[in-house]
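Q: What does the assembled structure look like for these inputs?
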Amino acid sequence: MRSVLEAIEVSRHFDVSRPVLQRMMSGEGRRTLRAVDRVSFDIPAGTTLSLVGESGCGKSTVARLAVGLYTPTEGEIRFEGHPLSSARAQPALRRKMNMIFQDPYASLNPRWRVRDIVAEPIRAFKILAGKADIADRVTQLLTQVGLSGADGEKFPHEFSGGQRQRISIARALSSEPEFLVCDEPTSALDVSVQAQILNLMRDLQQNLGLTYLFISHNLSVVRHMSDRLGVMYLGRIVEQGPGEDIFRTPRHPYTRLLLDAIPDVSMVGRSRMPVSGEVPSPISPPPGCTFHPRCPLANARCRVEKPEPTRVGGVLVVCHAVEEGRG
Amino acid sequence: MGLLDVIDLTVEFPTRRGTLRALDAISFEIAPGEILGVVGESGAGKSLTGAAIIGLLEPPGRVAAGQILFDGKRIDRLSSEQMRPLRGRHIGAIFQDPLTTLNPLISVGRQLTETMQAHLKLSDRDARTRAVKWLEDVGIPAASERVDAYPHEFSGGMRQRVVIALALCAEPRLVIADEPTTALDVSIQAQIIALIRNLTQSHGTSVMLVTHDMGVIAETADRVAVMYAGRIAEIGPVRDVVLSPGHPYTQGLMGSIPALDVRVDRLRQIDGSMPRLGSIPRGCAFNPRCVKAVALCRQERPDLMPAGATLAACFVAADLAATGRV
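A:
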């Protein structure tokens, strides 16, 4: 299948050094944060790749890399076969990608009417010219996301969180994109509203053939949304493959830990083994496999040698234990 | 009679455009040693219930009617001076954001000893020993060295552990935990839930656990109250509310949570959203979103009625239970 977005060994580092004078006084060197470390994936047209992980694992950085808000420090991102930077330079390609943000309260301009918010990409990309045509298109978009055309006259503060997220989706769709990056689109919403938005996003995907890069920390949401799944830990994708495979037989110890840790309604009345430990600081990650301090399967090799991806069936796993068959 | 009895509690906010009723005659009790989960969507009034109980309603909010009884004594009419010895000593609180709960300028050990010495008669040395003991109990490694550390030196999960130690150190009989795990990552969430459950169990503490996360409730609580638009929609043992809810709202809520073990094509969704306080519909507040609503639901407001193993504020569910067609 044609791939829409392809990331090849992409890394993104941030310089988090202290100011130069302070560094000279205390005699310390530069410090870099490896937010994303040699991440590779590709997303075939019409499918959803989800990235899941805890805060600080680099999933939002990947989202920003994917739409070109950050440039990779190393590696390459290709959009529809073109390098991302050149794709971004061509409006015809650039309008094919858009983003839905987490916080519907911060991502809509409070001084603009909804119709102007939704019409902005149409005007920016000069997709339609006439006022009446734009108004018709805005009405059509608002209806498509479950609002009414009359809502276009209102301001964002007149809407609830779920409705605002619908407005964000209408805006994202207005440039007629093929590829949407959704960074935690439902984590600011209540569960019943979350269900509405997730259903809407799946309907839109089916009707418009959209391709999603879906970022979330919520595994059950991810399971519902994704065709393929990548589990991130400290900047690396530690397990990647078809969602069903990973949920059925999680192989990486971190994926297992995450799946074991989620409070779930099916666990009513049962108790579970709590997992221990926390995510270490990404500025000074542990040597070897960064997961080894929390890993029940860690041995001497894991403490010194960085694991590389191994293929197990359709799944790529970054783990010495799995590679050696100790998992 | 429970350790905490809330009877017809009504909280109102006078505004320029009239009085908003944020909590409307809610009643429940918490038995000694029991964990009551309170769930609902934002704006349902769950945090407000907790705030009313510990006497921390933000003005202009006020208790307009009803009673709150703690250990048989009314506490809703106490002045803030009278409330202070009770709060912390007998009723502890754990809030959502561990960063704003802790004083950044005082070491965690000092915050613990100060709290304990304010409520219990303890010498400085005993208080310090106990502070270290509490930090160990909540699972902070090298507690005796970290007792003098400041909040910013701890990670989010560790800070929430300190907050739990603070809430429990005066050995209260009731703890109000308002979204204690919402700001934390999933792998930390499970640790904190287990911690709250084990510590309160071993001390026989009652807990009111307020959260929007049904999964957290399912694994922690003994009983659950589901709130909707300032009222309790359904209350009952956790198993029954989760697995066989009577109220259509609870049913919708349970159906809208994506499951981990099975994948469905469409999530069950409740259309619309919760009404704002100023425009709560006549009759049952849920009737415009309810697929089972009948004419009666639009005219009369249902009270909690037996619906199978739970109590539900729903005419349809009560009718089904009464006629045995469940």
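Chain A has a mean pLDDT of 89.
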